Amino acid sequence: MKQALILAAGKGERMRPLTNSSPKPLLPIGGKPLIVWHIEKLAQAGITDLVINVSFCAEQIIAALGNGSAFGVHIQYSQEAEPLESGGGIAQALPLLRPDKCFALISADVFSDLDYQT
Prior knowledge:
This protein is an alpha/beta fold. Helices cover 24% and strands 25% of the residues. The chain is built from three helices and six strands, in the order βββαβαβαβ. The strands form two sheets. It has a four-stranded parallel sheet with strand order 5-4-1-6, sandwiched between helices. A two-stranded antiparallel sheet has the order 2-3. It is globular and about 40 Å long.
């Protein structure tokens, strides 16, 4: 099974006031949350085992995405009590990933047309 870690724990301070009460990965782009674009592209590429690290407004991301079944993926969450920055977030999430498999690392708050199949 292919896997990915999606970084979604930041406060999105440069997007204020849009992110005062909503995490940046849930901001709508083209009619759907930014993070959903990533999840759908990962699923299309056959990457269906996802870990999402969350902190700021974590409950909103978890409520919006659930266990991932609506997108044809399986989502686990690595919840940070306090934001750990990228390196700390990756280190905390590693136990949720299969150590014998490589994983894609995706920043949830960046829109990209990257083909995840390559």
